[in-house]
Amino acid sequence: MNIPALQKGDTVGIVCLARKVSLEDVALGVQLLESWGLNVLLGQTIGAQDHYFGGTDALRTQDFQEMLDNHEVKAIFSARGGYGTTRILDALDFSLLKKHPKWIVGFSDITSLHCHLHALGLESIHGTMPLLMGQPDTQEADETLRQALFGEPLAYSVPAHARNLEGTAVGKVVGGNLILLNNIIGTASDIDYAGKILFLEDVGEYFYNVDRVLVHLKRLGRLQQLAGLVVGQFSDMQDTAVPFGRDVTEMILEHCSDFGYPICFDFPVGHVPRNLALLVGREATLDVTAAGTSLTFTVEQA
Fold first, then answer.
1. pTM given for the model
2. Handedness of CA 94, 21, 128, 36 (dihedral sign)
3. I need a labelling partner for 61 at 20 to 30 A (CA). Which of 105, 201, 228, 292 fits?
4. Active-site choice (108, 112, 124, 189)
């Protein structure tokens, strides 16, 4: 079932699914959404606190559930990431969302929610969040999110990378934060990777831990049957006292280059200002050539 594109005058909600956030933190994001002609409804979790979290698990569950079930709310934004979404996923009821789908937006810790929705057959938007919106250096990320929400075509072109593996792939786009993808394996949020275009990103991880997760995914058979692989930004990486000796590009090629699908490196998605919106669960065409890479999402027919 297609998700209706937003229209000016629609109401959208902002909730805190993970780490705490204040009203001041999201003020610029609210202003930007209002500049798009949207009415913004703030959840009870904005400004709430339970130590690290934006309110207790019970409050975060209730707040998100009310937004999911409110027919007047046409899209829901996670205010920020951090940690905490997996603590509430199994307590949520998505039955009304399946009947009346709406856009769910976020990234980082929200990867688990994107996967959970994909497992239910629902699309969502991996994109910037109100905490980060409205900044001078996030204008492109903000604009691609607006395009996704309002049903405008999404097609990206990025420069060639010397280590890319060329080819063309067609498949549904899935993925997100590498460590979260590993953490949800075996849960109700787990997804099938076969025939999909997988995108990966992460922040602040040790090189050896990224390699450990890639090895785990490979041993599970998750990397072998992809249609294509989009490697986003692995920012603020850390190393051990004894250097690991491989960067992320080298790890990806070591574990995936024999499988025959196209691989694009340095795609602008992740914990960076230029975090382009991606439609999780939507079919796209990935074309990796010597001249550059394009990722073009299929336009859903009304």
1. 0.98
2. positive
3. 201
4. 108
